Structure formats: C-alpha cells, structure tokens
C-alpha cells in the first residue's frame, strides 16, 4: 500500500506499524518525533499503531547537540 | 498631539521637532531615538511617534530604565513581548543563549529548566562565566539575566524533566523551546509537550554541531504547531564537537522563531 512520509509517497506492506516503519527507515524510535495523520504518536504507542493506505506521516529525527 | 517620550505619553504642539523636544525635556541628551532608530538630524515629530532621549553613560532612574532598554526595538513589539511567557527546556549552549536573546528583547517571563551545574567544558559555547563554575545552570542564568534586564521574570526548575513533570513545570507558557543536548531527551520533551499541549507552539533544534557552514542551519515547520531549527543531520559525535558560533546561530534561529510566534507571525 502507499503512504506519504515527509511529503514523499512510499510503499509499505499492509498492516505495517509505526515501529516497523521506523525499523525499515533505520531510525531509532527513542530519537524521533512522529506525527500520524496530524496527531502526535507517543513512543509507547509506536508498536501498536498501524498505518493504513493513504496515511500521512511526518517523522523528525533528532541528533545530539545543544 | 500625543507622542511617547521616554515611554511616557505627553501632549505636544503640532509641528514640534526632535531638537525642540530635546531642548525642552532633556537638553543634556546626546542620543535621540526616533521610532526605534537613532537620528542626528532635526525632523518634525508626528502624532503617535515614539521618541527616546538618552544621555550616554548616565544611569537612568528605575522608571526610565525599561523604556531605554527597548528604545531600539521595532515600535509596538515590546508591548506584546512583555506579555509573553516562554518555557526553555535545557539551558546549555542553546538554552542559555536563547534566554539571553529573549531577555534582551524584553519577553516578560521565562521558565528555565535544567538538572546540571556549570562546569568548565560548558564555557566553550554556553553563556556562563568562570566564577559560576559549580552553580546550578538555572541559578547562574537567572543571575546573568537580571544583570541584563531586571524587568524579566525568570522562574527556575532545577531537576530532571520527565513525562510526569513536563506539563506542570511548563504550565501556562505561550511558546515552548526544546534546547536539550541529548537526542533522546529532545524526542521525549517534544513528544510529551506536544501530546499535552497541542495548541501551544514548540520550537526544537536538531543538527547544529561542528563548524560546517552556518548557512545550512534553518528554521522550518515540521508539524502542527511544531518548528525545527538546524540542518537536521549534523549531530555531536566522536570527532565532531559543539562550537559556540554554530550553536549560537541555531539558538538565535530559535529565539527569533519565538519572537515571531509571540508576535503572531509564522516563523
């Protein structure tokens, strides 16, 4: 199915969770901010939140420094 | 007609000029600021203008002080900033510089939170002094802010921020700033604050290490009420440190985004 991640259309398997998507994108779940269809998703909910066809995700990766 | 002179509203005759005002109210003034801009020439004053007369080196009275502090501000900005409350999570390289920029701008109230003390490796980029080594950063910063602008109220929280206390510590802020060092702490603050206060804008930073070009540090919208400063990828890691200029560039991007949000402008 097709989803949009940071403005770009991507193909993922049906029933993909946010946790699985982050793994596929090689992102550390403890270092990202995720917005799923405009709603903020908490780290604790990444595994149980399933993505559906046409969903939109905004994923920000944090790197250290401040 | 009415104008504002050294932050007091006064009535003057139509057609009065800057030099006539100086002659009448403060002949010893050697700096004349007209609507936020210093001017030498004698020009007529219009109704609603803001004029500030300063004698250089003079220590002003407490009531005059605040007006003089903001006399170079863009007119109309200070009244709004003064009403603003800004939360800053982490007062290291980013947070200490952001707090100072906001205090100089006259933002009314800051909430500063950090668990750490000032130590020597901070001084390469953080706004502290050698004689403050060992002090909690929030206390050292509060002291520095007071020396810059005594009219800014600073509340401090000395301790670790977590999912439970973030909403309480930053209750009532108009704009929130993420200014942590560690990537997982940044993510935790952003997630917790946005979940709890989705209507309040948050300005975070990621990608400001090293001495790569400063021009790649930018401010962008990264979600609903969420703004991100940095190049997005240059992290602190073995072989790449944190340097005052680029951290400062990012900090001031964040501070500018805060000002714009307080003024109801898109960062």
For the CA atoms, what is the radius of gyration of chain B?
A: 21 Å
N- and C-termini, Cα separation of chain A: 39 Å
Q: Give the end-to-end Cα distance of chain B, rounded to a whole number of Å.
A: 36 Å
General form of chain B: elongated
- Helical element count of chain A? 1
Major β-sheet of chain A, in short? Answer: 5 strands, mixed
Proportion of residues in β-strands of chain A: 25-35%
Instruction: Specify the biggest β-sheet of chain B.
Output: 7 strands, mixed
Beta percentage of chain B is 15-25%
The percent of residues in helical segments of chain B reads 25-40%
Structural class category of chain B: alpha/beta
Can you list the strand order of the major beta sheet of chain B? 8-7-6-9-10-12-11
Which H/E pattern describes the elements of chain A?
EEHEEE
Poorly predicted runs of 5 or more residues of chain B = none
